């Protein structure tokens, strides 16, 4: 019997990229997966990969009403993983501030709202995993608003770990570096994207990007280590150590 046998795990952004890899990893250990994604066209392939018992729910995490309805329909939530949301890039004088607001709507307030609605359904021993990014710890070009976002999510994780600890709920943050196989919309011209990616890889001591499966192994540690709470793990090939 796996350590996650019978656990109900809700994964936002669960039909692609990091969220899908985490869903597959948890399913192999016996968890019952609820894959949450705003694109229903991804579910057939994702559910086939995750396996029997998993289900998909179409939700835009920036819509509070949709999140409320998602959690109202669940009997309980043992594990919440919030991986939904993308990224935008651009210099501070070029990218409209509305783009950063949209990013915060999904990547910050979407995670906060998911916690708001999930926590009442969580028993003692529940686990929350938020997702930030390494921009809080190292410079990422043309990502000023995203840098603020990463710092905000890390701070949220620490605050919730302290707040929810007395209720037996653990809260941690996964901070990905450059991970291939994710749905990043670079919203930049071709050469700027190439230069951006080259700069990232050149900053990584391991000299290569990571994979969603690397993130999934870190997520499994947080799901099963019963004394890990209030922590942020950078899965980044030592990028933030430079």
Write the layout of secondary structure elements.
Elements: E1 8-12, H1 17-28, E2 32-37, H2 43-50, E3 55-58, H3 64-72, E4 79-82, H4 97-107, H5 109-118, E5 127-131, H6 144-164, E6 170-176, H7 190-203, H8 212-224, E7 232-235
Parallel strand pairs: 1-2, 1-4, 2-3, 4-5, 5-6, 6-7
Descriptive account of the structure:
By secondary structure, the chain is of the alpha/beta class. The chain has a single domain, classed as 3-Layer(aba) Sandwich (Rossmann fold). The protein is built from eight helices and seven strands. Strands 3-2-1-4-5-6-7 form a seven-stranded parallel beta sheet, with helices on both faces. Helix 4 runs parallel beside helix 6. The termini are far apart.
List keywords for this structure.
single chain, Rossmann fold, 8 helices, 14% strand
Looking at the structure, what is the overall shape?
Answer: globular
> Mean pLDDT across all residues, rounded?
95
Strand-residue proportion: 5-15%
* Radius of gyration over all CA atoms, rounded: 17 Å
Largest sheet: 7 strands, parallel
**What is the CATH first-level class name?**
Alpha Beta
Number of domains: 1
Q: What do we call the CATH homologous superfamily?
A: NAD(P)-binding Rossmann-like Domain
Please mark out the parts with pLDDT under 50 across 5 or more consecutive residues, or reply none.
Answer: none
Strand order of the largest sheet: 3-2-1-4-5-6-7
CATH fold assignment = Rossmann fold
DSSP, total strands = 7
Helix content: 40-55%
Q: Which architecture per CATH? A: 3-Layer(aba) Sandwich
Question: How far apart lie the N and C ends?
Answer: 41 Å
Main structural class: alpha/beta
> Which sequence of SSEs, written as H and E, runs from N to C?
EHEHEHEHHEHEHHE
- Helix count, per DSSP? 8
């Amino acid at each position: 019997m796996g350590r996650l046998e019978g656990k109900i795990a809700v994964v936002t952004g669960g039909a692609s990229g990091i969220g899908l890899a985490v869903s597959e990893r948890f399913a192999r250990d016996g968890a019952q997966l609820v894959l949450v994604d705003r694109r229903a066209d991804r579910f057939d392939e994702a559910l086939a990969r995750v396996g029997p018992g998993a289900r998909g729910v179409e939700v835009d995490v920036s819509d509070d009403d949709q999140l409320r309805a998602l959690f109202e329909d669940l009997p309980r939530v043992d594990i919440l993983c919030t991986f939904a949301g993308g990224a935008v890039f651009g210099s501070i004088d070029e990218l409209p501030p509305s783009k950063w607001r949209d990013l915060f709507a999904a990547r910050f307030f979407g995670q906060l709202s998911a916690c708001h609605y999930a926590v009442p359904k969580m028993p003692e021993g529940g686990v929350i995993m938020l997702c930030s990014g390494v921009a809080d710890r190292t410079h990422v070009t043309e990502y000023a608003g995203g840098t603020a976002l990463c710092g905000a999510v890390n701070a949220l994780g620490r605050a919730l770990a302290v707040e929810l600890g007395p209720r037996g709920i653990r809260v941690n943050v996964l901070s990905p570096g450059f991970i291939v196989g994710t749905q990043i919309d670079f919203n930049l011209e071709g050469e700027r994207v190439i230069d951006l990616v080259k700069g990232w890889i050149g900053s990584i001591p391991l000299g290569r990007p990571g994979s969603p499966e690397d993130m999934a192994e870190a997520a499994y540690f947080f799901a099963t280590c019963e004394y890990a709470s209030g922590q942020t793990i950078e899965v980044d090939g030592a990028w933030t150590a430079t």
